[in-house]
Amino acid sequence: xxxxxxxxxxxxxxxxxxxxxxxxxxxxxxxxxxxxxxxxxxxxxxxxxxxxxxxxxxxxxxxxxxxxxxxxxxxxxxxxxxxxxxxxxxxxxxxxxxxxxxxxxxxxxxxxxxxxxxxxxxxxxxxxxxxxxxxxxxxxxxxxxxxxxxxxxxxxxxxxxxxxxxxxxxxxxxxxxxxxxxxxxxxxxxxxxxxxxxxxxxxxxxxxxxxxxxxxxxxxxxxxxxxxxxxxxxxxxxxxxxxxxxxxxxxxxxxxxxxxxxxxxxxxxxxxxxxxxxxxxxxxxxxxxxxxxxxxxxxxxxxxxxxxxxxxxxxxxxxxxxxxxxxxxxxxxxxxxxxxxxxxxxx
Length: 347
Ligand code: F6R
Known about the structure:
Blueprint: H1 2-6, H2 8-27, E1 36-40, H3 47-55, E2 64-67, E3 80-85, H4 92-103, E4 108-112, H5 115-124, E5 128-130, H6 141-155, H7 160-174, H8 176-195, E6 199-205, H9 209-223, E7 227-232, E8 249-255, H10 261-276, E9 281-285, H11 291-312, H12 321-331, H13 336-345
Parallel strand pairs: 1-2, 1-3, 3-4, 4-5, 6-7, 6-8, 8-9
Helix pairs in contact: 2-6, 2-7, 3-6, 3-9, 4-13, 5-13, 6-7, 7-11, 8-11, 9-11
The protein binds fructose -6-phosphate (F6R).
């Protein structure tokens, strides 16, 4: 896992190169200017959609909806595009969205490294993006991110996100030393707090939600620890009251040089409040000239910090035994293969 995380900039650069070809082959199979795009996926296969939503927040001209559930809302119609992403290709929720889109004849693309989703897509004649196999889904973020960028750009007739990602890779390489230092310091601090029996709460805000959420999920899966994710400004209107009671939490705030005043003052207030309550608070300030650069900087630092935290705890970051157990339990009780067969044969 450490190796995969350290390779993040190189993997993203390679993936972007690979995807140049994808742009040519898939373009003709995609709808032109859909009314909205849904990117469906769970866990490590969800984060790419959330990242893209942040990256394109103020430029994408139609709704870009990251979806992490087993159903497809009624407003998603034939004028939308659904991109179903499951790294393993066997995730029930994502397959259910895929099947629902097939039933409703909504333009679809499937993305996986294999599994049932690949089989179903090929059988149903759905455009399919093959991801490189053999890694934990969450470590395949660079590959999913590059492919998503090409797809999302393509339907808008642009190359914006792919271009910004390319630039951001170069930036990441330039700042990788300071990212390493930052992640080391962050992981030591988190370890200290966890050893003192505290739990992490991460504060982030739009359009940096994906980075804060990424840290939460990476601490969960790599370090096998609880961590919670909270949003500014909504938490100012409810959760903030929790600090008046007892707390077993420590807090990390995502900061950027370009945060607007309405975010800046809320975070400054929160920082002061927490300090006055004796709650340990730390900030990570993004490095980068564009938002995509800042987002990738956060991702790199947080991925590394979560892996370092797990290694310092003597925990193997790679396996996710409880998730695997749950998937096996569900697999024994739900005949997903049979359901896919039924839907595909009724097309
Ligand atoms: C990440 C991870 C999970 C999976 C999730 C969905 O490494 O293990 O978050 O990403 O369970 O599975 P996939 O990605 O195969 O659809």
